[in-house]
Write a structure and sequence with these properties.
Chains A, B: Its EC number is 2.1.1.200. The structure is a homodimer. By secondary structure, chain A is of the alpha/beta class. Chain A has two domains: 163 residues, SPOUT methyltransferase, trefoil knot domain (Alpha/beta knot, 3-Layer(aba) Sandwich); 66 residues, Helicase, Ruva Protein, domain 3, CATH 1.10.8. The first copy, chain A, has a seven-stranded parallel beta sheet with strand order 3-2-1-6-4-7-5. In chain A, helix 5 crosses helix 7 and helix 8 packs antiparallel against helix 9. Chains A and B meet through helix 1 and helix 7 of A and helix 1 and helix 7 of B.
């Protein structure tokens, strides 16, 4: 059995985990399924002896884990991010079953890193966090008791990705034939839209009418290409009133 | 989403678990996927505060758990049992991927209880334990690190069963059109064969030549029917030398 390389491109992102034991359990779950990239957003306690104990033989995953301050940072460099959530939220991608979504996620992994984002044990992911992800993924839990342990959730998702990779069931990508833009480029594009629309008077920051979330959803769904980002930003720049070039980009 | 009733017929059997925390994690994993029957074979420590803590909201599964002394007892009343093991063992059913095996297991659940048997955290299942099961099931773990935590393994298997049940992908049963015999009837049948073959001189207890394991494998594969058990036992009885009828059955 050859190890599927796409799994090396999967980042497991744990956002604000409270219990270090769950970080260890997640690391162990990842490694059993051939996943290695762990990113922790503001963990309550890490490194931790409890995490190491629960990781068992997967301490290498813990040792290589990156700790960052924000989900944006965790997603930098990814071409796709999926939020693990069962809730349907306005302005966010509707959750799909992991068994259906994993083929597309692995196809994106052919282009670059793909993140699966798990929320805090008690509060889950915020709407803002889910909106930073272009996809949402869930599993068909018991509606009367859907409370998977964080490590168990990572185990099931990692298992689905591995199973799909081994079965070679890669889904065709959406019509993004070129190179998909990394997360931070898309964020800059959206920020550029916002700035341009405010400047033009189309977007009133006091009454934003969900214009930005809608744009975000559109670009997320489409998996926008690098070249498309360049075109759109060039277009936006052409609409802007002349400003000091040094302050334009951010 | 209607809860699939077949899942109520699934028994999760943990054989000789060492860590009470894993029992709690297994209970939680089961409940999230709609499984409720937990059977513990000689647990090192149970009940336990640690198990209860790790079970989180699934303490009802722990409270209803049955504790027994042997795997035979745990399997009594089942029409099918699958061992969770990745090792290929002589005289035992070859392990199949859970994603492939779950359809058949759920079909058997239409007839009666179906057990999934998990071994000790360190030693796994013994050959003797696997031989008591008619099927073996595994998941495609990383060959370089396949050490799933016990609770995580239960989570993945329970997930596969639930996913399959919800998708309605029930596999056709083998040609067992009648009522499948429960575990203990098949065990009595095999014991009857053994006794008859010893009496006839075909089986030398000092040189058993794996005759019994082969019969066990055959009947396990076939999922023998109640009526077939009756026919075979009647046939065996007809071969036996006359003995005191009171001692014949056991």
């Amino acid at each position: 059995m050859t190890e599927p390389l796409a799994l090396r491109r999967i980042r497991v992102v744990l956002s604000r985990p409270s219990h270090p034991g769950n970080i260890g359990a997640a690391a162990r779950a990842m490694k059993t399924m051939g996943l290695h990239q762990l990113v922790l957003v503001s963990p309550k306690e890490f490194p931790s002896a409890e995490a190491t104990a629960r990781a068992s033989g997967a301490t290498d995953v813990l040792e290589n884990a990156r700790v960052v301050d924000s989900l944006e940072e965790a997603l930098a460099g990814t071409v796709m991010a999926a939020a693990f959530t069962s809730r349907i939220r306005e302005m966010c991608a509707a959750p799909r079953w992991a068994s259906e979504a994993s083929g597309e996620l692995l196809s994106f992994a052919g282009q670059g890193d793909v993140a699966i984002v798990f929320g805090n044990e008690t509060f889950g992911l915020s709407n803002e966090e889910v909106m930073l992800c272009q996809r949402a993924v869930t599993i068909p839990a018991n509606p009367e008791y859907a409370s998977l342990n964080l490590g168990a959730a990572v185990q099931v998702i990692a298992y689905e990705l591995r199973r799909t990779a081994l079965e070679g069931r890669l889904a065709p990508l959406p019509q993004a034939l070129g190179e998909v833009a990394p997360h931070e480029d898309v964020e800059r594009l959206i920020a550029h839209f916002e700035r341009a629309m405010i400047a033009s008077g189309f977007l009133d920051p006091d009454k934003p009418r969900r214009l930005i979330p809608r744009l975000r959803r559109l670009f997320g769904r489409a998996a926008v290409e690098r070249e498309e980002v360049a075109i759109l930003r060039g277009m936006l720049a052409s609409f802007e009133p002349k400003v000091d070039r040094n302050t334009r980009d951010f």
